[in-house]
Amino acid sequence: MLIKKAEDIRSSEITPKSLYLNRRKFLAQAALAGAAAATGVGLRELIAPSTTALAGNKIDGIQKSPLSTTETVTPYKDVTNYNNYYEFSTEKDEPAKLAQKFRTRPWKVKIDGQVEKKQELDVDTILKMAPPEERIYRHRCVEGWSIVVPWIGFSLSELIKRVNPTSKAKFVEFTTVFDPGQMPGQLRNVLQWPYVEGLRMDEAMHPLALLCFGMYGEDLPNQDGAPLRIVVPWKYGFKSAKAIVRIRFTDKQPLNTWNISAPTEYGFYSNVNPNVDHPRWSQAKERRLGEFLKRPTLMFNGYDQVASLYSGMDLKKNF
Amino acid sequence: MRKLVKVTWIDVFSPKAESRKPEAEKMLRYLKPALLLACLAPLAWLVWRALHSALGANPIEAITHSTGDCTLTFLLITLSVTPLRKLTRQYWLISLRRMFGLFAFFYGTLHLITYVWLDKFFDVHEMLADIAKRRFITAGMTAFALMIPLALTSTKWSIRKLGGKRWQALHRLIYFSAAAGVIHYLWLVKADLKKPLEYASVLGVLMLYRLIAWIGSRSVAVGKVRASEG
């Protein structure tokens, strides 16, 4: 019989989802590799991919948000080939290659700690909690560079409301996946794994704090934190934990990984603050990727609406 | 008939009279220009990438890192000439050392220019603040400053004017320049010490050679004094 029944198809014959989603990119790259042997132009593309073939799934029903900035968005190829994602590599151009086969489904997120009901939610359940919005945020790395990214997600408060934290919950702690089999950077203890970050409850409930699962109109690429991450735009980028597998509500301030790594250099709050230098470099200026001149860093990365969260706090002590 | 010479570990490590065979002279005529081009290759690669927008999302950072790596690499190559020529008995290698050393200074200058121009935009006040407050900048400036007298006295004229012993003493500054360069790298990384420690261990091995050689030459000297007394 010519037409195969479902049982006749071996699972080994099924195209892996990641390859299927990236088939056009895969074919383009295969063709490119052939062309590269003949022309230097191909070589240039291999080194600096200008692929507009994006991560895969387009997200439907995206609403615009008044919280978006009107600043120029950083090109997609820069945001996807310049990543601090030490779980994969400490070299910024490596995660794009090393994360290609990273499995983002099935993916479960444990919700526990001071909540009404401890549960394990499938990520796709979480994605349906609220309509997706496009939030074009400035993103400032502690190293002194910044980008503007059109994230897709909804306010973290939407998830928090739905899981009913108890009155004892003063902080939210986020844990990134630990999987050295897929994340070669975790074979070394360059940081203590798994990666942990945290927010104070009022920070987490602020409308700006984003539960994020997409960018540039599509699913998050693996090297940018797929399938689920947070984005906290008024803090240094390392606060915006990626590939989240656990959200725990707690009464004690979480010990975040960079603070464990260098307590005098990276604090819990880590608000973008041009007046508080990193012990080893100044935070007064930043390099916006794509721009030649450096620009002055803005307090709270320009998001003044969070200032009220810290009124009365010494931000030099609580860095 | 060739005289058999017993080779001991002292012969391998201690100073010896230089010899330059005529074959080495001929080889150098082709080797030196070829190596010069090879030393320029990292710069050519950098320029090619810059012209083809292939420096990544943060080109200035890429240039800074690339020139910095080249500086440290050439410092270590320069420092490996003497151990290499003694261990392989290819004494003509000495004639390549100046070129490698000057390339370390060359890439160090490019690295400094990148910082002064593309990072600080010639803001002297900001740079002085950096040198005073940011330890890793202090270390980097020290490493560069130590290379200046070495570059200025790299000619045969300088060796004659200073005299061999004084020249050699001055050029030991390269040990401190390389060490300062490694410390500069160690003090600027956020958490990953792997690459700085790789440079540190190569430098360590190259300095260990010199330590053993120095101990060896001391024991030879002591031996000679004892022999003359006895």
Query: Which stretches of chain A of 5+ consecutive residues score pLDDT under 50?
Result: none
Biggest interface and its residues per chain?
Answer: A-B, 29 and 22 residues
Alpha carbon gyration radius of chain A: 21 Å
The CATH homologous superfamily of the largest domain in chain A corresponds to: Oxidoreductase, molybdopterin-binding domain
- Beta-strand content estimate of chain A: 15-25%
Q: How far is it from the N-terminal to the C-terminal residue of chain B, by CA? A: 34 Å
Biggest β-sheet strands, sense, barrel of chain A: 8 strands, mixed
Shape of chain B: globular
Structural class of chain B: mainly alpha
Question: Could you explain how this protein is built, in words?
Answer:
The complex is a heterodimer of chains A (319) and B (230). By secondary structure, chain A is α+β, with helices and mostly antiparallel strands. Chain A has two domains: 16-53; 60-310, Alpha-Beta Complex (Sulfite Oxidase, Chain A, domain 2), CATH 3.90.420.10. Chain A has helices spanning 17-21, 23-38, 40-47, 76-79, 95-98, 123-127, 156-163, 201-205, 257-261, and strands at residues 63-64, 108-113, 119-122, 133-140, 145-155, 171-176, 196-200, 210-215, 218-219, 229-231, 244-250, 285-288, 295-296. In chain A, strands 1, 4, 5, 8, 9, 10, 12 and 13 form an eight-stranded mixed sheet that branches. A five-stranded mixed sheet of chain A has the order 3-2-11-6-7. In chain A, helix 2 (23-38) crosses helix 3. The termini of chain A are far apart. By secondary structure, chain B is mainly alpha-helical. Chain B has one domain (25-218). In chain B, 80% of the residues lie in helices and 0% in strands. Classes of the chains: A alpha+beta (319), B mainly alpha (230). The A-B interface holds A 44, 47-48, 74, 77-79, 81-82, 86, 90, 92-93, 143, 145, 147, 188, 190-191, 261-262, 280-282, 287, 289-290, 293-294 and B 49, 52-58, 60-61, 119, 121, 130, 134-136, 187-188, 190-192, 194.
